[in-house]
Design goal:
single chain
Length: about 140
């Protein structure tokens, strides 16, 4: 894996809210497959909450996808990101976090604390553009 900035920092988009993040993510999600299978991505942010990049960590099946936390942190550390937003889609359109979603988020958040990296949110994206924010719901 390598990291190379393709867009220079003055043009990085700033994330001010979960809606900003969800809109950006939905815009970049493949509309041909968002309803078909789950994918897990991470939004990489600098100290000003400006987006350095979006990395797709995994692509799974209809009801789940595997997340290798070692690869996730390799990406975060390689990009020198200080904050992240986790995201995955729910092909079913269910606007609710599962227990597995909550456990994974907590596991990632605890690991991030060791590296002084902030997990700002975990956003679930629906095929119609709706979203569910862990931060807005007070889960994270």
């Amino acid at each position: 894996m390598s990291y190379k900035e393709r867009i220079t920092s003055p043009f990085w988009q700033k994330i001010n809210s979960s809606k900003d993040a969800a809109d950006l993510l939905f815009q970049h999600w493949d509309k041909n497959t968002i309803w078909l299978h789950e994918s897990f991505k991470v939004v990489l942010l600098n100290n000003s909450n400006k987006v350095k990049g979006i990395y797709q960590l995994s692509k799974g099946g209809i009801t789940g996808t595997l997340v290798d936390i070692r690869i996730l942190f390799a990406v975060i550390l390689k990009s020198l990101s200080v904050a992240v937003i986790l995201t995955h889609n729910h092909p079913s359109g269910t606007l609710k976090a599962s227990e597995a979603d909550k456990k994974l988020t907590n596991k990632i958040k605890k690991a991030a604390e060791l590296f002084d990296i902030k997990v700002l949110d975990h956003i679930l994206i629906m095929p119609n553009g709706d979203y569910y924010s862990f931060a807005d719901e007070g889960i994270i």
